[in-house]
Amino acid sequence: MIEFFKYHPLIEVPDFFSEIYAFIESADGTKSFQQKHYPDHFSPEFISKFKPWFEQLIGAKISGPSRGCVNITKFTGVNNEVPWHDEGGFDNGIKDQHSGSGEPQVNTDKEFMCFFWLASDHGHGGAFRFINDNTAELGVVELDPPGFLLATKYTLHSVERYSSQQFRMGFTIDFSVDQ
């Protein structure tokens, strides 16, 4: 299995990810943040192709993904730094955009996370910061898409301020490793 808490460049982004990239093309250019949820807003074709591709990518059989989201962010004059949180219940004030009612962030079902970075404007911030669950060391991943990082759902992480008017796009999913 591929190493956790380490940035891994994607050698090739699969063709079916065009569905995610189309989200940027259809996004409202006046909004600073927009979100698309997995699996609710994804085609059956994407869902059927993602799991076998992801299993090959990380070198492990998985259960899931059961939840995920695509976040696109750009600078529109307001602070867009994401505060420290995890995907296991510590939301630090982050609200779930999916609920529409401002409820606290939804917890993921599975114990592991994959954070994909698919687009950004280099040199404009937006680094992913995390606390390594094993060593308690601070890690910082500067944006250099496409690439990804594996972590647990309890990994504390934040995203620094992003100052570009070009969208930064991340795709996050949960999963379990089958033994």
Task: Provide the number of structural domains.
Answer: 1
Q: Mind telling me the CATH class?
A: Mainly Beta
The CATH H-level homologous superfamily: q2cbj1_9rhob like domain
Summarize the helix and strand pattern as letters: EHEHEEEEEEEEE
Number of helices: 2
Arithmetic mean pLDDT: 90
Question: Portion of residues in helices?
Answer: 10-25%
Largest sheet: 7 strands, antiparallel
End-to-end gap: 12 Å
Work out the number of β strands: 11
CATH fold category name:
Jelly Rolls
Which range does the strand content fall in? 25-35%
Q: What structural class is derived from the secondary structure elements?
A: alpha+beta
Question: Ranges with pLDDT <50 over ≥5 residues?
Answer: none
Name the overall outline.
globular
Radius of gyration over C-alpha positions, nearest whole angstrom: 15 Å
The CATH architecture comes to Sandwich
Question: Descriptors for this entry?
Answer:
single chain, 179 residues, alpha+beta, Jelly Rolls, 4-stranded antiparallel β-sheet, 11 strands
Describe this structure in words.
The chain has a single domain (about 10-25, about 35-175), classed as Jelly Rolls. It has about 180 residues and is an alpha+beta fold. The protein has two helices and eleven strands. The model has no long low-confidence stretch (mean pLDDT about 90). The strands form two sheets. Strands 1, 2, 3, 4, 6, 9 and 11 form a seven-stranded antiparallel sheet that branches. It has a four-stranded antiparallel sheet with strand order 5-10-7-8, with no helix packed on it.
